């Protein structure tokens, strides 16, 4: 089974208005409500491609109910730990400039954290995949990321990690199946400029030395580089299209890659699907639909590079 974890999900309220005036009444021309969170994005993309999956994490209140219902409508199976507190709300203001106001989220106490780990300890088996994406919630620490990495290693499940540098590096010793830093994050981890493809590959290999199994480094408009556990290096290129919104593109890439790899064990085909998923979401309003992914897969070029 494929599982996603979102420790601190949100309901994203997106408000469109011509001109935002601070200190005055502003009237919104259009608003929308979206279940937000990196793991949730992964779950939606997976299901739209036909991969059954379970979304987990913590939700509460009427906002938590909205997330539960939204995922159910997508065909995702939501199995969150229910909190007494309310899931946070993020406000996205789209005017002459984009402004975001993100809620903090409820504090997760030790009892609810144990409920989530008990859930995985009862179910996780060899060959499953766990996507842990995003950051900690209030009340949680890097130890909880490490604990999930350890559990996946013990159960021989694929642990897929997409998070900030401190949480990522804390988990490397447990050999995550896939991590997805970008060039800026590589630079931050190693405290050195990353200004060429050669330096990207060099420092990504350093992360493999530290324990990462496979690494995708996103290069924005230049595509992505994949370093595999077999020592191969591949680069994918971005297809033509208009970028509408980059939110969720990286999540979509990770989801598409891992799902195809579990299905085929083919790195090239997996990178093609991952790159197509990332681009399809970037070219869409919201998470991509399967028909656009299928169309873009045919346009994705992947080359083997390096030695």
From TrEMBL:
Catalytic reaction list: D-tagatofuranose 6-phosphate + ATP = D-tagatofuranose 1,6-bisphosphate + ADP + H(+); beta-D-fructose 1-phosphate + ATP = beta-D-fructose 1,6-bisphosphate + ADP + H(+)
Keyword ATP-binding: yes
Organism of derivation: Fundicoccus culcitae
ATP-binding among keywords: yes
Functional note: Catalyzes the ATP-dependent phosphorylation of fructose-l-phosphate to fructose-l,6-bisphosphate.
CDD domains the UniProt entry points to: FruK_PfkB_like (cd01164)
PROSITE patterns: PFKB_KINASES_1, PFKB_KINASES_2
Protein name, entry field: Tagatose-6-phosphate kinase
GO MF annotation: an example: 1-phosphofructokinase activity
Pfam families: PfkB
Alphabetical UniProt keywords: ATP-binding, Kinase, Lactose metabolism, Nucleotide-binding, Transferase
NCBIfam families: 1-PFK (TIGR03168), pfkB (TIGR03828)
Enzyme nomenclature, EC number: 2.7.1.144
Positions of the Carbohydrate kinase PfkB domain: 11-287
Family: Belongs to the carbohydrate kinase PfkB family. LacC subfamily.
Pathway(s) annotated for this protein in UniProt: Carbohydrate metabolism; D-tagatose 6-phosphate degradation; D-glyceraldehyde 3-phosphate and glycerone phosphate from D-tagatose 6-phosphate: step 1/2
């Amino acid at each position: 089974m494929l599982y996603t974890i979102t420790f601190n999900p949100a309901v994203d309220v997106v408000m469109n208005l011509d001109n935002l005036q601070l200190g005055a009444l502003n009237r919104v021309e259009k608003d929308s409500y979206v279940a937000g969170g990196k793991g949730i994005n992964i779950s939606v993309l997976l299901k739209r491609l036909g991969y059954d999956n379970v979304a987990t994490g913590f939700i509460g209140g009427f906002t938590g109910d909205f997330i539960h219902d939204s995922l159910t409508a997508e065909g995702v199976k939501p199995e969150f730990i229910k909190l007494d507190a309310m899931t946070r709300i993020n406000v996205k203001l789209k005017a002459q400039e984009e402004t975001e106001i993100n809620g903090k989220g409820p504090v997760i106490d030790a009892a609810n954290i144990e409920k989530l780990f008990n859930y995985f300890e009862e179910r996780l088996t060899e060959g499953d995949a766990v996507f842990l994406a995003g950051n900690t919630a209030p009340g949680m620490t890097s130890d909880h990321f490490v604990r999930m990495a350890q559990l996946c290693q013990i159960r021989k499940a694929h642990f897929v990690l997409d998070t900030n540098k401190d949480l990522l590096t804390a988990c490397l010793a447990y050999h995550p199946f896939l991590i997805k830093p970008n060039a800026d994050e590589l630079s931050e981890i190693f405290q050195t400029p990353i200004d060429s493809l050669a330096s990207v590959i060099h420092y990504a290999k350093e992360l493999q030395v530290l324990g990462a199994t496979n690494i995708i480094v996103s290069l924005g408009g230049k595509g992505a580089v994949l370093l595999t556990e077999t020592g191969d290096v591949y680069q994918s290129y971005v297809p033509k299209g208009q970028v509408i919104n980059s939110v969720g593109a990286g999540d979509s890439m990770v989801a598409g890659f891992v799902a195809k790899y579990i299905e085929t064990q083919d790195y090239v085909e997996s990178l093609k699907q991952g790159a197509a998923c990332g681009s399809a979401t970037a070219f869409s309003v919201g998470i991509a639909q399967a028909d656009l992914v299928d169309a873009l897969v045919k346009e994705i070029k992947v080359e083997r590079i390096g030695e």
